[in-house]
Design brief:
The protein is α/β, with parallel strands linked by helices. It has nine helices and eight strands.
Length: 262
């Protein structure tokens, strides 16, 4: 198993709703701009999830190119397939990103949006990215440092318990801090890194923070936090919103990577 998160049907559909929100769409556009797709190229989207980015890349590739989406969750593959109807240049694979079923130097560009933090064998995953990229090819990796979550709470001890419990959903909650050295060890070159923030000043239904709170709550209840505590936490967030005191911010980091040409 190459992931620490069980994306069952319920979790996958919650993630799909979050990915459809304007906040995450803006993050996805940052990745899309960074990879700068060109017609005729062949893309690989690792951890393609519900398929939003993979569909965009497949459309940009045009009839002479392609996008291949890879995910370990069969439910995610199914959700992506629902969005891919009529797009012949998108191919979806249920596969482990530490052992990709593709030839060496197969792809012009690789994307991994909020994926690598879930992979216990990070070095194997980076090695596979290096292997399947053509010489001179590029990759864009985006992930979160969960210590960078800033979330207003009246009961700060409860907030800390919930966020600490949620940290276990990834094996690398501090991935951005360790990634540069790991990229170098894999033979990849980091050319640039930029910050992609989330900022919500309201707890409205179409915000990232509301969808994220649902995913967090469902996970921590399965991992030792009482449902009553989660319910009280969500109620507090709603009260903060009504009082004009709500604040949520989280930092994601976008890495521009290349594979050196001989």
């Amino acid at each position: 198993m190459s992931s620490t998160m069980d994306f069952d049907d319920a979790t996958s559909r919650m993630v799909d709703q979050i990915y459809a929100s304007p906040d995450v769409a803006a993050t996805r556009q940052a990745v899309y701009r960074a990879i700068a797709p060109r017609a005729g190229e062949h893309f690989l989207d690792l951890g393609s999830g519900p398929g939003y980015l993979a569909v965009d890349l497949a459309r940009s590739a045009g009839p002479a190119g392609s996008c291949t989406g890879v995910d370990l969750s069969a439910t995610m593959i199914r959700l992506a397939g629902e969005k891919a109807t009529g797009i012949d240049t998108l191919d979806l694979h249920h596969a482990d990103i530490t052992a990709l079923p593709f030839d060496d130097a197969r792809f012009d560009a690789v994307t991994a949006l909020q994926t690598l933090a879930y992979v216990p064998d990070l070095d194997a995953a980076l090695g596979e990215i290096a292997r399947v990229l053509r010489p001179g090819g590029r990759a864009v990796i985006l992930d979160t440092d969960f210590d960078g979550v800033v979330w207003q709470a009246r009961d700060r001890a409860r907030m800390r318990r919930i966020l600490d419990a949620y940290d276990s959903h990834v094996v690398w909650p501090d991935l951005p801090r360790i990634l540069p050295a790991r990229l170098q060890a894999a033979g990849l070159v980091l050319s640039r890194c930029e910050v992609v923030p989330f900022l919500n000043l309201g707890f409205h239904p179409n915000s990232f923070s509301v969808g994220f709170s649902r995913v967090v709550g469902a996970y921590v209840v399965r991992n030792g936090i009482a449902q009553e505590e989660v319910d009280a936490w969500v109620a507090e967030q709603q009260a903060l919103d009504q009082a004009g005191e709500f604040f949520f911010s989280m930092l994601r980091f976008l890495f521009h990577v290349t594979k050196p040409a001989p």
